[in-house]
Amino acid sequence: PVLILAMLFVYSSILDGYLGKIDGCLFLIGCIALICFFVHLAHESLRKTLSANELKHPMPMQRSLKLNLVSLFLGLIILPISAKYVVMNAAELAKWSGMSELTIGLTIMAIGTSLPELATALTAALKGEENLALGTILGSNIYNFLLILSFPALLNPGQVNTVILTRDMPVLLVLSGLLIYLNFHYKDKLSRCHGGILILVYCAYIAAMVFKA
User: Which domains does the chain have, with CATH numbers?
Assistant: First the structure.
Protein backbone atom coordinates (compact mmCIF):
# COMPACT_ATOMS: atom_id res chain seq x y z
CA PRO A 1 0.00 0.00 0.00
CA VAL A 2 2.85 2.43 0.76
CA LEU A 3 4.28 1.86 -2.73
CA ILE A 4 0.90 2.54 -4.34
CA LEU A 5 0.48 5.70 -2.26
CA ALA A 6 3.97 6.90 -3.25
CA MET A 7 3.20 6.29 -6.93
CA LEU A 8 -0.16 8.05 -6.72
CA PHE A 9 1.48 10.96 -4.92
CA VAL A 10 4.09 11.34 -7.68
CA TYR A 11 1.55 10.74 -10.44
CA SER A 12 -0.83 13.40 -9.14
CA SER A 13 2.07 15.85 -8.78
CA ILE A 14 3.17 15.53 -12.42
CA LEU A 15 -0.29 15.28 -14.01
CA ASP A 16 0.07 18.92 -15.04
CA GLY A 17 2.94 17.82 -17.29
CA TYR A 18 5.64 19.63 -15.32
CA LEU A 19 8.20 18.37 -12.80
CA GLY A 20 9.11 21.40 -10.71
CA LYS A 21 11.08 22.35 -7.62
CA ILE A 22 7.96 22.35 -5.45
CA ASP A 23 7.34 18.75 -6.54
CA GLY A 24 10.93 17.88 -5.65
CA CYS A 25 10.59 19.42 -2.18
CA LEU A 26 7.37 17.50 -1.56
CA PHE A 27 8.96 14.22 -2.71
CA LEU A 28 11.96 14.78 -0.43
CA ILE A 29 9.77 15.61 2.57
CA GLY A 30 7.68 12.51 1.88
CA CYS A 31 10.81 10.36 1.71
CA ILE A 32 12.14 11.67 5.03
CA ALA A 33 8.73 11.10 6.64
CA LEU A 34 8.67 7.52 5.34
CA ILE A 35 12.16 6.80 6.65
CA CYS A 36 11.15 8.03 10.11
CA PHE A 37 7.97 5.95 9.93
CA PHE A 38 9.82 2.75 8.94
CA VAL A 39 12.48 3.27 11.63
CA HIS A 40 9.71 3.68 14.21
CA LEU A 41 7.97 0.51 12.98
CA ALA A 42 11.22 -1.46 13.08
CA HIS A 43 11.94 -0.28 16.62
CA GLU A 44 8.46 -1.19 17.83
CA SER A 45 8.59 -4.59 16.14
CA LEU A 46 11.98 -5.34 17.68
CA ARG A 47 10.81 -4.24 21.12
CA LYS A 48 7.76 -6.53 20.95
CA THR A 49 9.67 -9.50 19.55
CA LEU A 50 12.65 -9.52 21.88
CA SER A 51 12.51 -9.84 25.61
CA ALA A 52 13.99 -7.22 27.90
CA ASN A 53 16.92 -9.53 28.67
CA GLU A 54 17.68 -10.02 24.98
CA LEU A 55 17.63 -6.27 24.44
CA LYS A 56 20.19 -5.78 27.21
CA HIS A 57 22.30 -8.76 26.10
CA PRO A 58 21.88 -9.21 22.33
CA MET A 59 22.89 -12.49 20.72
CA PRO A 60 26.39 -12.49 19.23
CA MET A 61 26.62 -12.11 15.46
CA GLN A 62 27.88 -15.05 13.42
CA ARG A 63 30.34 -12.74 11.70
CA SER A 64 32.14 -9.76 13.17
CA LEU A 65 30.61 -6.33 12.75
CA LYS A 66 33.69 -5.08 10.91
CA LEU A 67 33.53 -7.93 8.39
CA ASN A 68 29.84 -7.28 7.79
CA LEU A 69 30.46 -3.57 7.26
CA VAL A 70 33.37 -4.22 4.88
CA SER A 71 31.30 -6.72 2.88
CA LEU A 72 28.41 -4.26 2.69
CA PHE A 73 30.70 -1.42 1.64
CA LEU A 74 32.41 -3.48 -1.08
CA GLY A 75 29.07 -4.73 -2.35
CA LEU A 76 27.67 -1.20 -2.56
CA ILE A 77 30.71 -0.17 -4.62
CA ILE A 78 31.05 -3.16 -6.95
CA LEU A 79 27.38 -3.57 -7.89
CA PRO A 80 26.78 0.01 -9.11
CA ILE A 81 30.08 0.02 -11.04
CA SER A 82 29.25 -3.22 -12.83
CA ALA A 83 25.73 -1.96 -13.55
CA LYS A 84 27.18 1.30 -14.90
CA TYR A 85 29.23 -0.46 -17.57
CA VAL A 86 26.31 -2.67 -18.54
CA VAL A 87 24.13 0.42 -18.96
CA MET A 88 26.77 2.38 -20.90
CA ASN A 89 27.34 -0.34 -23.48
CA ALA A 90 23.69 -1.29 -23.78
CA ALA A 91 22.64 2.35 -24.17
CA GLU A 92 25.11 2.87 -27.01
CA LEU A 93 23.72 -0.21 -28.72
CA ALA A 94 20.17 1.05 -28.24
CA LYS A 95 21.02 4.48 -29.67
CA TRP A 96 22.64 2.81 -32.65
CA SER A 97 19.39 0.94 -33.23
CA GLY A 98 17.45 4.22 -33.33
CA MET A 99 15.31 3.92 -30.18
CA SER A 100 14.18 7.08 -28.37
CA GLU A 101 15.73 8.23 -25.09
CA LEU A 102 12.48 7.46 -23.26
CA THR A 103 12.45 3.90 -24.60
CA ILE A 104 16.12 3.48 -23.66
CA GLY A 105 15.39 4.76 -20.15
CA LEU A 106 12.40 2.47 -19.69
CA THR A 107 14.23 -0.62 -20.94
CA ILE A 108 18.04 -0.75 -20.99
CA MET A 109 18.69 1.90 -18.35
CA ALA A 110 15.95 0.63 -16.04
CA ILE A 111 17.20 -2.95 -16.21
CA GLY A 112 20.83 -1.90 -15.75
CA THR A 113 20.20 0.31 -12.74
CA SER A 114 18.05 -2.44 -11.20
CA LEU A 115 20.89 -4.99 -11.27
CA PRO A 116 22.00 -4.25 -7.67
CA GLU A 117 18.45 -4.76 -6.38
CA LEU A 118 18.10 -7.88 -8.54
CA ALA A 119 21.32 -9.36 -7.17
CA THR A 120 20.30 -8.59 -3.58
CA ALA A 121 16.79 -9.99 -4.05
CA LEU A 122 18.08 -13.18 -5.72
CA THR A 123 20.61 -13.77 -2.95
CA ALA A 124 17.96 -13.24 -0.27
CA ALA A 125 15.49 -15.53 -2.06
CA LEU A 126 18.08 -18.31 -2.46
CA LYS A 127 18.80 -18.10 1.27
CA GLY A 128 15.10 -18.44 2.06
CA GLU A 129 14.71 -14.81 3.17
CA GLU A 130 11.69 -14.01 1.00
CA ASN A 131 10.60 -11.03 3.10
CA LEU A 132 14.01 -9.42 2.64
CA ALA A 133 13.82 -9.99 -1.12
CA LEU A 134 10.34 -8.48 -1.38
CA GLY A 135 11.26 -5.62 0.95
CA THR A 136 14.30 -4.81 -1.20
CA ILE A 137 12.18 -4.58 -4.33
CA LEU A 138 9.34 -2.55 -2.78
CA GLY A 139 11.67 -0.28 -0.81
CA SER A 140 13.81 0.41 -3.86
CA ASN A 141 10.78 1.47 -5.89
CA ILE A 142 9.43 3.67 -3.09
CA TYR A 143 12.72 5.54 -2.71
CA ASN A 144 13.20 5.78 -6.48
CA PHE A 145 9.92 7.66 -6.66
CA LEU A 146 10.43 9.93 -3.68
CA LEU A 147 14.17 10.34 -3.12
CA ILE A 148 15.77 9.82 -6.54
CA LEU A 149 13.08 11.71 -8.46
CA SER A 150 13.36 14.67 -6.10
CA PHE A 151 16.90 15.50 -7.31
CA PRO A 152 16.16 16.05 -11.02
CA ALA A 153 13.05 17.96 -9.94
CA LEU A 154 15.14 20.27 -7.73
CA LEU A 155 18.20 20.58 -9.98
CA ASN A 156 16.65 20.58 -13.44
CA PRO A 157 12.88 21.17 -13.52
CA GLY A 158 11.18 20.54 -16.84
CA GLN A 159 8.31 19.14 -18.86
CA VAL A 160 7.19 15.53 -18.45
CA ASN A 161 6.69 13.43 -21.58
CA THR A 162 2.95 12.84 -22.04
CA VAL A 163 3.63 9.18 -22.87
CA ILE A 164 4.79 8.69 -19.29
CA LEU A 165 1.50 10.05 -17.98
CA THR A 166 -0.80 8.20 -20.37
CA ARG A 167 1.01 4.86 -20.78
CA ASP A 168 3.89 4.12 -18.42
CA MET A 169 2.54 5.35 -15.07
CA PRO A 170 -0.82 3.55 -15.49
CA VAL A 171 1.02 0.33 -16.43
CA LEU A 172 3.23 0.71 -13.37
CA LEU A 173 0.22 1.23 -11.11
CA VAL A 174 -1.54 -1.83 -12.54
CA LEU A 175 1.53 -4.08 -12.16
CA SER A 176 2.18 -2.90 -8.61
CA GLY A 177 -1.48 -3.42 -7.75
CA LEU A 178 -1.30 -6.93 -9.22
CA LEU A 179 1.74 -7.74 -7.09
CA ILE A 180 0.04 -6.50 -3.92
CA TYR A 181 -3.16 -8.38 -4.78
CA LEU A 182 -1.29 -11.66 -5.31
CA ASN A 183 0.65 -11.15 -2.09
CA PHE A 184 -2.46 -10.57 0.04
CA HIS A 185 -4.76 -13.01 -1.76
CA TYR A 186 -2.33 -15.89 -1.38
CA LYS A 187 -1.42 -14.96 2.19
CA ASP A 188 2.09 -13.60 1.60
CA LYS A 189 3.13 -16.66 -0.43
CA LEU A 190 4.02 -15.93 -4.04
CA SER A 191 4.58 -19.05 -6.13
CA ARG A 192 6.80 -19.63 -9.16
CA CYS A 193 3.65 -19.38 -11.27
CA HIS A 194 2.95 -15.89 -9.95
CA GLY A 195 6.54 -14.87 -10.61
CA GLY A 196 6.27 -16.24 -14.13
CA ILE A 197 3.09 -14.25 -14.75
CA LEU A 198 4.75 -11.02 -13.60
CA ILE A 199 7.79 -11.70 -15.81
CA LEU A 200 5.60 -12.44 -18.85
CA VAL A 201 3.59 -9.24 -18.35
CA TYR A 202 6.81 -7.22 -18.06
CA CYS A 203 8.30 -8.88 -21.16
CA ALA A 204 5.11 -8.11 -23.10
CA TYR A 205 5.35 -4.46 -22.01
CA ILE A 206 9.00 -4.22 -23.07
CA ALA A 207 8.32 -6.00 -26.37
CA ALA A 208 5.45 -3.61 -27.14
CA MET A 209 7.66 -0.57 -26.49
CA VAL A 210 10.57 -1.88 -28.56
CA PHE A 211 8.25 -2.89 -31.41
CA LYS A 212 6.62 0.55 -31.42
CA ALA A 213 10.04 2.24 -31.30
Answer: 2-212 (1.20.1420)
